[in-house]
Amino acid sequence: MKMASNNGEPPFKRSRSEEAESSIRNLELDLTKYNSSYRKCSHDDLVKIFELGRRVRESVNLDRKYSDDDLVEIFELGLRVRESASLTLNINQKFVEDVLNSQMKLVQESVTRIEQKVNEQVQTVREKVTEVVDSQMQTVRENVQTVQKNVQEAHENVTESVSSNIKKFTGNVEELKQDLTNKVETVAQKVPSLNIMDSKISSIKTQLQKDVKDSEDRVSEQLKECKLKLNSISSSLQKPSNKGARAERNVLEILKQHLEGLNFTFLDTARDTGKGDIEVQTPNGHKVMIEVKQWTNAVSKDKIEDFERNLANSPDYKVGILLSMTSGIAMRSKGTRFEIAFDQSKKQYQIYVPNAYANNEEHLIVWSVVMADQLVKLDVELGERKTKGLDEIYKKFADNIEHKKACETNLAALESAMKNLKDNIQPILKTVDETKNAIYKLLHSS
Fold it and tell me: Could you give the CA distance from residue 191 to residue 275 in angstroms, rounded to a whole number?
């Protein structure tokens, strides 16, 4: 086994090579002399044991040159140190408990002493806090008394200032009163006598009443004229005219609103197959079928044929009306507001009305029903002269409707103007009376 050793010669007296050669020595050990467990130790473990013994030896004697026997003794010394470190001590359980109990007793006594000290310190802190709080409360009471004193002084100062200002204000009021009295007397000298004022006021009242009466007469005459025109239009049209809505439900509402008062009746037949959308019963008991289309594009040919077929299969209908609310009808009514066709074999009239509600004008819908009421009484095809005549009548019909709307607008404007005029007259008369009273009070005041 190679071991490093000190040969006892100071290192500064040896060269580096000599120092390297003298620090390494080979030592042979007979491991059979020792415990069998050390025979399995590695070379590094044996070196560590030797180093352990050497450190113990050198702690007693340094700078010594060792012989091989000394090195063996050092190794054995390391063995003994290592074995002493691995010894275990069997301690009796009761001995351990006694030791622990004695230690716990000491701990408990120490805790008790600490608790007493803490309580004493807490009591001391409590007394100090109480002393500080009492001092602070005394300071607060002194501050409050000082504030109360300052408030009392401020109140006295304010009271004195207010009293002084009131005296000044009273003096100013007296001066103002005297000044106003002087001015009123001056005005009274310049104002005409009350008799003259009464005469002028009476004249103004009379003129206002005359103007109001003339305005009322003119408005009444205009209202009578408008009412006569409205009655004439209503008589010629045999119905009132209002805005309609759209599609089947809207058409039904328009017809009920305008023609039910003339003994027309209307039924919703949209759910009855082959019966159109609306059934009209005229005052004479005849039936008219109405088909309503709400299309963006023109009504197609197949839908026209469906309408004609449904009408032909319903002989109890004398007239059928196809209303296209906002679009045209294919191959029908080109350039005209409506077209009338006659089925000679079925003795039925077919009325085609394109753009029936394109401009939100319900009169074309009403016109088609009024015209159908007259066609149910015929059984012949209309000639060109009668067709043109119907077109001329429709134009007059539409003009009367527009005139009626204009009259209604003018009537509403006149009624509003009449109301505003009446509302303005009353304040004028009231102002005159208030002016008269103000002048009287001014002239008769002391």
Answer: 88
Q: Are 282 and 373 spatial neighbours (Cβ–Cβ below 8 Å)?
A: yes
Q: Please state, in angstroms and rounded to a whole number, the distance separating the CA atoms of residues 164 and 32.
A: 129
**Pick from 34, 32, 39: nearest CA to 79:** 34
What is the enclosing helix (H) or strand (E) of 410? helix 384-443
333 torsion bin: left (phi>0), alpha (psi -120 to 50), beta (else):
left
- The DSSP line for 313-329 is T-TTEEEEEEEESSS-B
> What is the mean pLDDT of each successive set of 10 residues along the chain, which is 446 residues long?
47 44 68 72 80 74 69 79 59 60 72 83 85 82 82 77 73 70 62 59 74 77 75 47 55 90 92 91 94 91 94 94 92 83 92 89 89 91 87 86 82 84 69 81 79
Distance, in Å, from the CA atom of 336 to the CA atom of 227, rounded to the nearest integer, reads 33
The span from the first CA to the last CA of the chain, in angstroms, equals 147
Q: Are 29 and 72 in contact (CB under 8 A)?
A: yes
Nearest to 373 by CA among 256, 290, 280: 280
- Taking the C-alpha atoms of residue 365 and residue 18, their distance in angstroms, rounded to an integer, is 137
> Tell me, what DSSP letter sits at residue 9?
S
pTM summary value: 0.40
Decide yes or no: CATH 1.10.3470 for domain 238-382. Answer: no
Place of tokens 């058409």: 251
In Å, how far are 21, 62, 376 from 14, measured between CA atoms? Answer: 11, 18, 153
Closest CA to 269 of 250, 252, 247: 252
Nearest CA among 50, 8, 11 for reference residue 27: 50
Residues 6+ apart with CB under 8 A from 74: 50, 53, 54, 57, 66
- Structural tokens at position 121: 């310190």
What is the rounded CA–CA span in Å between residue 161 and residue 154?
A: 10
The rounded distance, in Å, linking the Cα atoms of 364 and 344 is 26
Question: pLDDT value at position 258?
Answer: 85
Per DSSP, the three-state class of 342 is strand
Dihedral sign for Cα 59, 65, 69, 71, please.
positive
Do residues 341 and 308 touch, judged by C-beta distance below 8 A? no
